[in-house]
Amino acid sequence: MSIIYIELDEDMEMPCPCQRCGEWFDLHNGRGSKSWYPGTVICKECSDEEREEMEVEAAEQEEEDDYEEEDPDDFNPDTCPECGSDEAGAPICSQCGCLLVDQDDD
Ligand SMILES: [Zn+2]
Ligand SMILES: [Zn+2]
Asked: Comparing C-alpha atoms, which of 30, 51, 52, 50 is closest to residue 42?
């Protein structure tokens, strides 16, 4: 006499094989797959892996979103440091008369 023996937990109510790893699990303990097998319940272990992978992908996408250059318009070199008047190209401010060019050279 031989009995086909499948290793199942005694308290499994609805044993079913996991689509991903093939292990038997109780449907009540499984999780709905969101990324790998949409609409399918997979075992908890695989679901955890799937969630980790999704979190990694989400984190990578966030990094890309954060990768923005700083706004170069924040600093306007043509603006007079004394009165704030826009003096593009002028050596002397027409509003307050202060010098707008560096006078380091003798
Ligand atoms: Zn699995
Ligand atoms: Zn000025």
From this structure: 30
